[in-house]
User: Fold this.
Amino acid sequence: MQSTRSRRKLTPGAADAGDSGDKQEQLLLSSAICDSEDLGPFVRKAFASGRPETLLHHLRHFSRLKESEIEEVCKAHYQDFILAVDDLRSLLSDVDSLKSSLYDSNSRLQSVAGPLLSSLDSFVEAQNVSKNVESALQSVSLCIKLMELCSRANHHLSNGSFYMALKCLDSIENEFQDKTPSSTLKRMLESKIPEIRSHIERKISKEFGDWLVEIRVVSRNLGQLAIGQASAARQREEDLRIKQRQAEEQSRLSLRDCVYALEEEDDDDEGGLGGDENDGYNYGNNGLLGFDLTPLYRAYHIHQTLGLEDRFKQYYFENRKLQLTSDFQVSSMTPFLESHQTFFAQIAGFFIVEDRVLRTGGGLISKMEVENLWETAVSKMCAVLEDQFSRMQTANHLLLIKDYVSLLGVTLRRYGYAVGALLDVLSKHRDKYHELLLSDCRKQIAEALAADKFEQMLMKKEYEYSMNVLSFQIQTSDIVPAFPYVAPFSSTVPDCCRIVRSFIEDSVSFMSHGGNLDFYDVVKKYLDRLLSEVLDGALLKIISSSVHGVSQAMQVAANMAVLERACDFFFRHAAQLSGIPLRMAERGRRQFPLSKARDAAEEMLSGMLKTKVDGFMTLIENVNWMTDEPLQGGNEYVNEVLIYLETLVSTAQQILPPQVLKRVLQDVLSHISEKIVDTLLGDLVKRFNVNAIIAIDVDIRLLESFADNLAPLFSDGDANQLKNALAESRQLINLLLSSHPENFLNPVIRERSYNALDYRKVVTISEKLRDPSDRLFGTFGSRGAKQNPKKKSLDALIKRLRDVS
Assistant:
């Protein structure tokens, strides 16, 4: 008993510990159940610990606790519950009565609403039928409108109104395709609309392709027409300038009675190439030019409508670029001289069309694209010109192409294209052109000179005089002569004048209408070369090789005098054509460019005359230098010379200008004077007396009288110059006949009276003077006789001059 008590006393601590653990688990389980938590962990733990009975014990304990709580609640609310049950029982009876009432009401309602529902069903059915009919009518109306649009689209397609057909297709797509009740129609539309669009695109592309082919021919004709209009405008300007030059010339000549006016013509066709920009849909259709851009703009408009605008722009640009590249081809089978107009007209027409498209095309081509095409064209044209110009050997061919290119530049400059590079190429070949032109003129001048017979030109009609004299302003008088008229020049003069005038006009034609407007200096430079190198050289050659006889030499000298007047006309004509005032041309005038040929002609004429005179001067050998009596009528040689000179002057004054005749006679008289002095100085004359000197003095007086008799032909100064040509012989004779020959030593007297004498010649000739007459120089013979003071003075002069030498 004691052990049992003690055992019970030992276990309570352990039992308390176990009870506390159980209580804790029970509390946790109760808490989880109240919180509606998952009890799975508690179950697993119970089975894991091998104590499921404990879990069941806890659950039962929780159940008992809840039952007790329920009992307590029921006890607390028992009275209320009884009341609620009573209420429910009374409510049940009310419900039964309500149910009976509702049943009766339902029966009455069913009996009343039956017919009404039957009528309502009929109404609903009728309404549905109405809606179906209305829907059918709408569908039929929609289909009718759709078919009308389809019919209209077909009509536009058959008439070629592609834009209207496309608008119909757009309306069908936007308004009817999705709303079409018929699946068949819808499938048809879905398949046909793209086909129709493709058909329209093909048709319009074909029309555009045909236009591309046609526009090439049209462009060529257009370019030729435009360049022709530019040429006509240039010709009108030239005509106005000619009238102005004629008016200025009349004013310069002070023709007060001449009334003139410049008539300006209206440029009716000016601007014809520009066309009318306000032409509606018919873009670019110009009846004057004959080109129509309607197919192009129609194709562009259709592609815009199809949404293919950018693709069409690219297609157009590429095709036009290919056409331009094709236009650049120069045929090797046809000479460029024959095909250059077509070549440049094609390019001009191309860019006139592109300018029109740029201005009226609504963005079909951009300004940058046109400029790129133009730069390509300019580069190619420059290359072609460089190549063709380098091959040309004829100035006229080069001028023809240059004129057409300059017209091309004028034409396209009106449309805003930069043509400076083309003009630069023309300017670059300026020197070659003039060299070719000089070469052509050299041949023509040589042929003209070779054909000349050096005979005076006979003109039977006034038009011949106007063509050969007045047109070159080489007349010496404004009075028209009587016909037939014998001109003082040969046919060479008008022939050469025509060649030079043609050269000037060709040179001005090449230099004008280019980038440089001030080109007179260039024309003048090449005109100087033509005159001083070509014409002067040809004249020198003909003078040295083909002139025989005095008459031909005289004719050549006369020609040179006329050409000198013609040269003034040449420079005035060049100035007029170059558009500069005549006073500026006259201010810059240089010396006579044919001076070498003129001097050679006069020298040849003088040489021939001297040769003739020398033939007569041989008679001086027959002079008696120790004659006892001086001749009164002059020696034989001088009479022959005078007869020849008088005959010569009577002929020469008909064709030679006074100045030329004066220079030739002056040279001949100077030669005669030299021959007289040389004869006295030479070995032919061993000695001479005063009588012979007096006879020579008579000869010189006769020659001086001949010069004085020519005074009506010349001015007083020219007549004196002729007499001065005899100065050497005259001064020598004066010195030999002088009473005081030692005055020759006086510088003042010598400069005034003996400036033409050479003291060495004076010494030699003075030593030959032998005369016993005291009247003049005293006695030279007798040793014992008193010396004549004149002879003494002459001896002193000789001695002094020898000392100087």
The two ends are 205 Å apart (CA to CA).
